[in-house]
Design goal:
mainly alpha; two-stranded antiparallel ribbon; rod-shaped
Length: about 150
């Protein structure tokens, strides 16, 4: 169970583009905690044997999960979401999407369908995804059209 929870936190770190935090969690947990503790438990405490190796690696997994959880808990979620919106707008613009003015046509809801190569990938509006009419929070990223990014 520890490994599955740790994997979820590592996935959040990966999705947020925090490779340094992932590396710190893995190195700190498995190499700095798990491996030395496993060596001590299995080699210096012969009565533990294979059980000592398993316990040491389990402690390493617990350390990985803890380090990753602390990294995720310290996120500035508004900054992370703004970075994702900026990356989405940049990718759609590069593909000639809503902000790029490239290939694409407006559908009935006023959203562009992005054509990438011969296959054509639709980037359609979703009625459930919209900014609140009372304003919502402004983007901290300059030059990002949040409405266009959310339409994709």
């Amino acid at each position: 169970m520890t490994h599955s929870v740790g994997s979820q936190f590592m996935g959040v770190l990966e999705g947020a583009g925090r490779a340094a935090d992932q590396t710190a969690a893995l190195f700190g947990g498995m190499w700095a905690v798990g491996l030395p503790v496993a060596a001590v438990f299995s080699l210096l405490m012969p009565a533990w044997g294979l059980r000592g190796l398993w316990c040491g690696l389990l402690l390493g997994e617990i350390a990985v999960t803890s380090i990753a959880a602390v990294a995720v808990a310290r996120f500035d979620w508004q900054q992370v979401s703004d970075a994702v919106v900026a990356a989405t707008v940049a990718a759609v613009s590069a593909a000639g999407g809503p902000d790029g003015g490239g290939q694409g046509e407006l559908d009935g809801a006023g959203c562009k369908k992005v054509m990438m190569g011969e296959q054509g990938v639709d980037a359609e509006c979703s009625p459930a995804v919209a900014l609140p009419e009372d304003g919502g929070r402004e983007s901290a990223v300059q030059g990002v059209d949040r409405e266009a990014a959310l339409r994709v």
